[in-house]
Specification:
221 residues, mainly alpha, globular
Length: 221
């Protein structure tokens, strides 16, 4: 619960900016913006979809591009699969829908800390620290967000990356994780500067873990 406090703040700030962006740039209604946050429930992908929509990109292309942007969830789910072994299919399906960067980081750190699967250790970060604040903030952003000043002047846009950076540090427990984090960060920044932020997220999220896997594990004495 303490680990998730920063994530709640991040989800509130980031969700508010999404709601504001959906209303002011894409002219989404409160129902449309809220439905996207509830059904899609993918922060970065939702922002990307708004940008593609404004740029006039076709819906099939938006679906493919946002799918690639969220392809990192395949790696997340593979890392969580051993902990969910033996759980029912409906529970695993619900867990898959609520899987986010934040719920993954918090739950994996918790499972490793206690050495076993803990239902509350997944559902609490998935629902309380992300799903609820994200959707509440989306509704606030799309309804009253336009009445405030530019969010960047308040520093709201910094909350999410700062919270995720703190979580990432806690997940680096060995040289393989360190290699993956450094490679992912360097490649992500380089590709973002050369191409686009969306391409950077995809490149860093795919290549970083591959670099980590290529590093031989430390032999136990």
């Amino acid at each position: 619960m303490l680990d998730g406090l920063g994530i709640v703040v991040g989800a509130l700030g980031f969700g508010f900016v999404y709601g504001l962006t959906a209303r002011t740039r894409a002219d989404f209604s409160p129902i449309e913006a809220s439905a996207m946050s509830l059904v899609a429930f993918g922060g970065a992908a939702q922002f990307a979809a708004i940008g593609y929509l404004v740029a006039g990109v076709s819906w099939p292309a938006i679906a493919v591009l946002t799918f690639l942007l969220n392809a990192r969830h395949v790696l997340y789910s593979a890392a969580l699969a051993p902990w969910f072994r033996g759980r029912s299919l409906p529970e695993r399906a619900a867990a898959a829908h609520l899987l986010t960067d934040e719920s993954f980081a918090l739950s994996v750190a918790h499972f490793r800390r206690i050495g076993r699967f803990d239902p509350v250790g997944y559902w609490y970060p998935a629902i309380v620290t992300t799903l609820i604040p994200w959707n509440v903030a989306t509704l606030l952003g799309v309804t009253v967000g336009a009445a405030i000043v530019e969010p960047r002047t308040l520093g709201i846009d910094v909350i999410f990356p700062a919270a995720m950076g703190g979580l990432a540090v806690g997940l680096i427990t060995g040289r393989r994780e360190l290699a993956a984090a450094m490679a992912g960060a360097l490649i992500g920044v380089a590709v973002s500067l050369a191409v686009s932020a969306t391409a950077g997220v995809i490149a860093g999220g795919v290549v970083g873990p591959l670099v980590g896997l290529a590093v031989p594990p430390r032999e136990e004495s």
